[in-house]
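Dear H.,

Thanks for agreeing to be a second pair of eyes. The structure we're designing against is below in token form, covering all 71 positions.
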């Protein structure tokens, strides 16, 4: 779920995985793994990536929490 929300936010920001990776700085592979829910970011990494995406981490987490409650 987190990965899906990160990908949506990245696309909304008009950024590629490469651009996010370069700004983080982390590997593009790590960005891909986060988006595919293969890697769970630390809180610090989540905050960093969300800052790059221009969205608060709390907004991303609220969307996941809402989706979880609805299921």
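And this is the sequence the design step returned. I haven't edited it by hand at all.
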């Amino acid at each position: 779920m987190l990965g899906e929300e990160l990908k949506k936010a990245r696309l909304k920001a008009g950024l590629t995985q490469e651009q996010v990776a370069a700004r983080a700085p982390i590997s593009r592979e790590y960005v891909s793994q986060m988006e595919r829910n293969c890697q769970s970011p630390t809180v610090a990494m989540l905050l960093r990536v969300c800052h790059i995406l221009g969205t608060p981490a709390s907004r991303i987490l609220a969307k996941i929490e809402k989706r979880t409650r609805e299921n």
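Two observations from my side: The radius of gyration is 11 Å. The mean pLDDT is 97.

Warmly,
E.
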